[in-house]
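Hello,

Our lab assistant flagged a job as stuck in the queue for most of the afternoon. It eventually completed. Since we weren't sure the result was trustworthy after the delay, we are filing this so someone can double-check. Below is the sequence as submitted and the structure that was eventually returned. Let us know if re-running is recommended.
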Amino acid sequence: MSDHPQPDAALPEPVRDHLGQQLRSVFTTAEPVPEYLGDPVVPEDFAPQIKRLETRLKTHEEGTIAVEQALDGLLGDLTGKAP
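-- returned structure --
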């Protein structure tokens, strides 16, 4: 008899069912379920950091657009053409 289990050896079905029930009872959580496939479910602990990141990205985007518009206006003033 070998010390290594055979790779195709399976547990009997009643044992698998019992272990499955035990695992489900341990790992069942009240965490939110994704609304659709690919929906990122973010833990509440990360909500403040995500909010700050979203604000920073929005501010950066708006600032970039404002600078672009200002430079276009400056270029138009220098060349005498409307952008």
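-- support follow-up --
The delay was a queue issue, not a problem with the job. The result is valid. The longest helix spans residues 47-79. The mean pLDDT is 81.
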